[in-house]
Amino acid sequence: MMKTKHNEHHLSHRNNWLRAGVLGANDGLISTASLLTGMVAAKPDFHTLLLAGASALVAGAISMAAGEYVSVSSQADTEKADMKMEKRELALHAEEELQELATIYQERGLTPELAQEVAKQLTGHNALDAHMRDEIGISEETFANPLQAAFSSAVAFIVGAAIPMLVILLLPLNMLWTALIVSTLIGLAGLGYLSAKLGGAPARPAMMRVVIWGCVAMGVTTLIGKLVGIAV
């Protein structure tokens, strides 16, 4: 009887870059489009509108990269501190750490004898890896990567912000408000769909979440622009 190869394609390894990328693109699209719709409602000249959009794109991309880098660096520092602590405990209290690992496996359903044997074998293979994964919940695949997160966020922000920027570059002023609203909502729906598919989640809730928040943001800035009635 032939053995069939059984492979499961899990998606959780995408969490770090997917979160940073989706957040960056959504922020770039919503923040830039909302700023521009508010300004269009205040009826500025084209050069003021272009300057505001370009400034929002550059400043937003740098801000997203810096924020992600600092945030993920803090996470990485915590993971390194946990690893250092676990190394010290393994060196000073090897037997206690072995029993701790066996207890974890026993709590997951193994018999005491089997849990002890599994703990011994995994400790013999790579004690630090076993404790980091099963005691702390950290594995090599999930280690925080600050540069990856920062780069993903900055590039994604630029991609998102490019949509409203192209609208103001290609269309006349009297069409901008409607075009910004429509293009932004389409872009947000597309981002929601893409993030859901990449993450293996249902598409409709993801699309609805970003579209609703985009409507709120552009509605508020449009109202402010009409009330102020001047170029910012």
TrEMBL record:
Bilayer-crossing regions: 20-42, 48-70, 149-171, 177-198, 210-231
Pfam families listed in its UniProt record: VIT1 (PF01988)
Swiss-Prot/TrEMBL keywords: Membrane, Transmembrane, Transmembrane helix
Gene Ontology biological-process entries: intracellular manganese ion homeostasis
Any one GO molecular-function label of the UniProt entry: manganese ion transmembrane transporter activity
Major localization listed first in the record, in broad terms: membrane
Domain of life: Bacteria
Record's bilayer topology term: Multi-pass membrane protein
Signal peptide: none
Places the protein is found: Endomembrane system
GO CC annotation: endomembrane system
Protein name: VIT family protein
Record lineage: Bacteria, Pseudomonadati, Pseudomonadota, Betaproteobacteria, Neisseriales
